[in-house]
Amino acid sequence: MSGAQKSEIGDRMVKRFPLYLRVLREMADRGDIYASGAVVAKALSLDPIVVRKDLSQTGVRGKPRLGFPLNEIINAIENYLGWDAPTEAVLAGAGRLGSALLGYPGFRDQGFKILAAFDVSPKRRSLIAGIPVYPASQITETVRRLKVVLGILTVPADQAQSVADALVAGGVRGIWNFTPVQIAVPPEVIIKREDLAASLAVLSHRLRRGDKGR
Amino acid sequence: MSGAQKSEIGDRMVKRFPLYLRVLREMADRGDIYASGAVVAKALSLDPIVVRKDLSQTGVRGKPRLGFPLNEIINAIENYLGWDAPTEAVLAGAGRLGSALLGYPGFRDQGFKILAAFDVSPKRRSLIAGIPVYPASQITETVRRLKVVLGILTVPADQAQSVADALVAGGVRGIWNFTPVQIAVPPEVIIKREDLAASLAVLSHRLRRGDKGR
DNA sequence: TAGATTGTTAATCGATTAACAATC
DNA sequence: TAGATTGTTAATCGATTAACAATC
Known about the structure:
The structure is a homodimer.
Chain A: H1 11-29, E1 34-35, H2 37-44, H3 48-56, E2 68-69, H4 70-81, E3 87-92, H5 96-102, H6 106-109, E4 112-119, E5 127-128, E6 131-135, H7 139-146, E7 150-153, H8 160-170, E8 174-177, E9 190-193, H9 196-209
Parallel strand pairs in A: 3-4, 3-7, 4-6, 7-8, 8-9
Antiparallel strand pairs in A: 1-2, 5-6
Helix pairs in contact in A: 1-4, 2-3, 7-8
Chain A binds a DNA duplex through helix 3.
């Protein structure tokens, strides 16, 4: 093929795709057939050039004067992000934050399916937001049996490493880490930290400087 | 003065400061007097050059052969981020996510103080994690009376804009937005979005590609 | 003094922005 | 056809990385 696709693309670009998807789905719901980069850019306060370049990364070709065919571009983005075939996940730590995440509808919309949750405390309800909660001792066995790909880590800081170890022992390929701990994992396991402290730092800094954030 | 300080620094750098602070505080607790860039870099798996450059941004000068004086550099970072004088905040939406955040110890560690929470439902407890919960109708008046600087937005998506309006009417200077909605505010108000969908996108993409994340 | 570490200047890299030809 | 929009190539910008002199 002639159109050589760039093999490595940056996180910045990937982060914009959910925004595009939301706008494009809205347009499709309204019955539109095409979406031009300009319209999408306006809806998201982005530069049209960025939108055009990002969308072209999916391999879908837009039609001059019309824009990108909506069905095609939506499917391409979903496929690109791996949201077409749900990624199976478990959540470890069904405390306040964990429970909040179990109820987050974004997982289903965005190609994830939480099969089970775990908690050390037997006092917790055995079902949160329709998802069964098991004792933490069963993490490794359950992850292995269900061939779970992703572990969501919402345990207290002092348990973060040991619970991560249990998830890794079960064979997860990635961990979404909501704890402030930098956990150690084998090199093939992907770690995504959700770093509230970093966000607070950016916020503090902007408030102090009186800057306008994006 | 000769050493002209760079006026505008990037978010990337600001995000690293909480990491430095954690490591530096640990070292100070252990009784160390100096911290070299190399040691800090090793603890965080960062390039020593990055650490040196970031720390020098605070204006503190390190001593060759010894490193940076711990007390001085810790104070400088706290001051730099505005964590020395607590920023007063309120939280709107005391559901699962909101309650989880009310119990998050990071706020106090990082220079924020949540004075009150708000919720539409009168069924909620009137005290969560020691913080009083008031009816949402009192947002504007309370924010104005207490001169609150930051609003934390954890309401359902369909209430995001109207609650944000109430916070702005009370005079907040920034909003930490945990909803998936892109809210509209006057240009002088700082918005910091906490975008779980973007994080999920990065995660999906890495899992699908089998890449190793950082 | 010798040597490790800082601080600064230059080079590299990646992403964003600009310009413009191709196309329906 | 005329004109709007795509797609691509070049220029700019900012951050990271490298190199090295200054310093205790």
